## 1
Amino acid sequence: MNLLPNILTAAVQLALQRGHLPSALGSAELQALFTAMMRRRTLVLARVTKAEFVAEVKRGIARVLQGGTNNSKAEVIGGLHLLLSRLGYSPETGFPGDEALGIPPAEPGSLQDLSSFARLNLIIDTERELAAGLQAKLSGESVVAKALFPAYELIRVLPRDVPRGSIDSGSPGWGERWVKFGGPELVNDGGRTRMIAMKGDDIWRKLGDQALLEDHGINDLALGVDFPPFCIRSGMGWQAIHRSEVKRLGIAPTSVNPANPVILSTSIQSMATPPVNLSRVDAGTEDATLKKLRAAQAKLEAFLAR
Amino acid sequence: MIRRISHLSSLLLMAGSLLVSLEVDDAAYHSAMQDAREALINDSELHEAMSRTLIDGHPKRGLIGVTQHIRSLAPTRHATAIALGAKPIGYLSLAAKDIIAASDAEGAGFTIQHNAAIFGRTFRPAHITIQDNKWLCIPADARTYSKSPEDFEGELDFVELIKGKFAVFFWAEEQRAKTGEIAQTAQTAQRPESAPQARKQRERTSSRVRKIAFKCVKEVHQEQDRTLLPSDETILKLCAAAANDLVTLAIEKRTKTTPPSLA
């Protein structure tokens, strides 16, 4: 079985195919300037004015995604540190010439300090999550995946010290956002409230939409994507929901956004499989086919009942 | 108790991910799947259905998939963090986060992309070795838990205690502070020792008070832990349930009972 082309390439290709752009703007200004499509096509780092550094970050992300010898996150961060030194970066003065661009000094070790472990770690983690999220979304859109698992549940996949919605976060939780943004009715599953929507539902776009967050006065940094993590360091993810659960919980296929706004390359696009016809059948043999299918079903049921 | 011969083989990829491919040696399973294989239009779709169901489970059958299985283990596997007094980082939660389906016409499986090395011992004991001048570094302090010596550039001192076998990274500042203290004590003791003896004495004494950041070894042995992934029984049933779903969909399509959303 040669599965390598399916599993390794998409995220790495995504990281490599993204353009890169230096920018003197802050995160909020960047969000206002770039559309979601550009955000996904271009790696832009807040207040980074050296294209050489941005290009190296891009290569570093591709290395981390690829994994293996010499490609650990620590090694990539170490390399970026060396490059920053060579380019004359310091948190107080930034890159040479930054002062003239009005870029404020950063407190050493803070998230604004490009040379801090926290900042470099955040950059790599966020980009890695975006690549993995897109990969998961695209592979979940194949016909077989949609037929068997037609919906997603929004769940917490990584713990956070101060999750959104907690008192100290200063930001509404995901359930509140879901309702505010007009998501499908929350599912009450035996007393447990679940956020479930069909694949392609517009709520997935809304959760990662910075403009919508701002319209609702929500202080957060959205990533402009319609897949988890939606917002920076959210710790949220998808659990695919089986068709039997969709049926049991009575989830309606509402509010579907038919447009898939961004496809980055034909190689990634090709992850979606062609439509299925499901059963072998020749003209005029309908009864025989059904008989065959039912026999197969009976055998599988017997095996599952053991 | 069900006794069966089934075998799951794993292949550790160079890229750091763990591809788990399914190789089943079980007559009852193959017999149950044979008719489905003949009835369904192609193996690629069957294998894709199997891969996805392996990952995401089959609630109607009460079968938990790989993702949920690993996620359920996460709260119970913090022994190292607790021993060091560190905050657990949720390494299993991270491993469960981006598991992807891997399938083609030949077979089905899944790939664990994060912290994949942990799962190498699902199928057999793991014996990890490292060559040349490199070391396997094991965190020995709450601050170094889940980190590498590279994360502490300039903060650590490396000392090889048993040549080619065992070494440690000490905290550099603490080492200097303690060594200074000991040097002072040695001076006040007024023992007329020769320089090498005094140094040996200082090293012996200081090694008792130095704080270790990492222990470094050349090889690590880990026992097999089959519970890291669902049991063979569960995995075979997940595959059979996936095949049954496709067969059911095909029947529904032929008898026109498929709901529009699933067509």
## 2
Amino acid sequence: MPSTLPGRALVVIPAWNEEEALPGVLKELSAIPADLDVVVVNDGSLDRTSEVARTHGARVLDLSVNLGVGGAMRAGFRYAMRSGYDVVVQLDADGQHDPSAIPQLLKALDDEHLDIVIGARFAGSGAYEASGPRRAAMRLFAVVLSRITHARLTDTTSGFKAMGPRAVALFSRDYPAEYLGDTVEALVIAARAGLRIGQVGVVMRPRQAGSPSHSPFKAALFLGRASFALLMALLRPRAQRVSALA
Amino acid sequence: MTLTSPVPIAITSAALIILLQLLRTRRMREKYASAWAILGVFIIVLAFFPSVLATLAHALGIAVPVNLLFFASLVVLYVVCIQASVELSSLGEDRRTLVEEVAMLHLEVEQHAGLLEDLAAKLEGRANDVRSTGSDELA
């Protein structure tokens, strides 16, 4: 049994068919010198993701149908709210995100009085490269979202993020399940609710299992869908401002 | 267009009766039926009084009356489809909330079961202690 007292931060790992990569990620997490609890949100996996997570000591939220990353994350945010966690860290299950960067994210959350800290791939460290339409889309998001959030953001589609109390409260109510809703649209929602957003450079690793999709057709499709998602996010009616808690 | 044709009247009446039956047995909710009902009544009126269509078309500046019929039908179909999509999205959102809720309850039950097991083990241990001390005293 995990301690009944909640740790300072809850690491939420949305996982869909990640039985191969997940054990490595969980092992790395347990080695981190920070007060972290871990919950794996099993997003309707068809493999043994849930069992694997349990045997490695993680708590598991089993979604009975696949809801997508946004759906899995909102479940995580709501669980965090209900269990009394102040801070949520979103971490991918495929091993791309290095858990040892979590203390850095948490530190930035505190030191810079931010509500959301993004672990950004293009911010100096690491050798992440995107090309073609995908790169163009990422640039576009970086420019548009930097303006909206009044911060210099270089990697808005990163799924490696730390969220403070105000962001957790907001996202447990409103976290889109649409395509790219969990990254681009979520940032728009947060910025409009008056949350402060920043970033920290992190090293991204190649996925530990499974293969990434990098065909030019898929990249072009990404650009189209992503632009549409951004446009819709900007056109949505504004959410209520989160009252200043901190 | 003076003779009233029985075929459209029969078909539309059958459609309306089916609609009514679906409503009566609560297999369809009233809010989805209104568009279909309006279309059905409209067609029956036209079947009895075909001249209405010509008059309406003329008033709207449509040269071929039947085009008005096609246009009106398309509008109704469009409204019904949009309504269905909106309902589908809202159902998806409901489902999402329920799935989250079930997952959280599942985890909670699991944790409570674990706590109960620990408690049972502890109680059993204590019972054993009491038994052994009791036998010590007897010895």
